[in-house]
Amino acid sequence: MSFINAVTVDEIEPGTGKTIELEGQAVAVLRDDAGNFYAMDDACPHAGYTMSEGEIDDGCVECFAHGARFDLVTGEPDSPAHEPLAMYPVEVDGDVVKVDLHA
Ligand code: FES
């Protein structure tokens, strides 16, 4: 495990997300209404739109472009996407959200 600092907790309101660049890679960090953080590849595997603009609900994020829903734990999608999102472990350390891109 090699967690690196991604964002601070107060940078992302519950129910929203943000695209950040980590090690040259675009990563979407999302926060659900319960305050849990998730990290994934920013590009939707369907047509490449950003996942950080997706709606977060019921353990899933829904891509704003064409509505594919991805499980926030497994990254598995429903239609029209067919490939899962790469998900990354997240650790909250005080007010810092850390992501491991190499787990
Ligand atoms: S780009 Fe995400 S569902 Fe089409």
Automatic annotation (TrEMBL):
The residues that cross the membrane are: none
**Does Repressor show up as a keyword for this record?**
no
Q: Which of UniProt's keywords are assigned here?
A: 2Fe-2S, Iron, Iron-sulfur, Metal-binding
Q: Which Gene3D superfamilies match?
A: Rieske [2Fe-2S] iron-sulphur domain (2.102.10.10)
- Under the GO molecular function aspect, what terms does this record hold? 2 iron, 2 sulfur cluster binding; metal ion binding; monooxygenase activity; oxidoreductase activity, acting on paired donors, with incorporation or reduction of molecular oxygen
Iron-sulfur: is it a keyword of this entry?
Answer: yes
User: Ranges for the Rieske domain?
Assistant: 4-99
PANTHER family in the cross-refs: 3-PHENYLPROPIONATE_CINNAMIC ACID DIOXYGENASE FERREDOXIN SUBUNIT, FERREDOXIN-RELATED
The name under which this protein is listed is Non-heme iron oxygenase ferredoxin subunit
Per the UniProt record, the source organism is Mobiluncus porci
